[in-house]
Specification:
Elements lengths: L2 H35 L1 H45 L3 H82 L4 H13 L5 E5 L2 E2 L8 H9 L12 E4 L1
Helix pairs in contact: 1-3, 2-3
The structure holds zinc ion (ZN).
The site of zinc ion has 8 residues, from loops.
């Protein structure tokens, strides 16, 4: 094998690793987004529980006001009753008072129902908060691992780039340029093995003259079909 090709094969191996690492690096934001998306169901459950609690609280407040209004009315009616001298008016006011007192009684029943509903919704909210906290813990852990992976990949990239530069340094610029161009055009495989008379890149049968040139080992030999640089294993 030509020493240049041996070097370029090493360059190619580093380039392939660099590309794989860059793919992994590019994938990290997707993985981060996927990790965070695990929170959405739990977050939605908690938002629903919050909304449920607010709903009950609003109903309770309205009910309190309703009770208050009726109690004020009852007080006013009782004052009127106290001041009146007419018997029929006294009776009528008394009936009114009874009617309002029954109202208040009914409203108080509803208040008890709402208090029970509030307790239930608080239990639901607490469970939702706990579930969210657990999921958040898992997600944080996953995000931490992804951050570590990102740092790791970046370090590896720097290391391998340095290795590549070192390996490529003694290669003559013309051959390196040829390799770079081919690598760019041929999906990262510029140099391929020739096995059983077949190109390892395009899998076409190589002609006799190409194989002869390859055997001679004096110059860089290309596949006549795909143009990739050939070597014998
Ligand atoms: Zn080929």
């Amino acid at each position: 094998m030509l020493p240049t090709i041996a070097k370029l094969l090493q360059v190619q191996e580093r380039d392939q690793r660099l590309r794989a690492l860059q793919r992994d690096l590019k994938e990290i934001p997707n993985l981060q987004a996927r990790a965070k998306s695990q929170l959405s169901d739990d977050q939605a459950a908690m938002d629903a529980a919050h909304a449920g609690m607010r709903d009950v609280e609003v109903k309770m407040k309205t009910l309190d006001l309703d009770v208050q209004t009726r109690q004020n009315t009852i007080k006013r009616l009782k004052d009127q009753q106290f001041e009146t001298r007419k018997n029929d008016e006294f009776t009528a006011l008394g009936n009114e008072v009874k009617r309002y007192e029954k109202d208040v009684h009914d409203l108080e029943d509803k208040q008890i129902e709402l208090m029970e509903a509030l307790e239930a919704v608080k239990v639901t909210l607490k469970a939702a908060q706990e579930k969210l906290a657990i999921t958040q813990g898992h997600v944080n852990q996953e995000l931490k691992q992804l951050d570590e992976r990102q740092v790791n990949i970046q370090q590896r990239l720097v290391e391998i780039q340095a290795e590549r530069a070192e390996i490529a340094a003694p290669v003559d610029p013309e051959s390196l340029n040829l390799y770079d161009r081919l690598s760019k055009n041929k999906g990262g495989t510029a140099i391929v093995v020739a096995e059983n008379g077949v190109c390892g890149g395009c899998h076409m049968k190589l002609v006799i003259s190409t194989l002869a040139s390859l055997k001679g080992g004096k110059e860089i030999t290309h596949c006549e079909q795909c143009g990739r640089i050939l070597y014998f294993a």
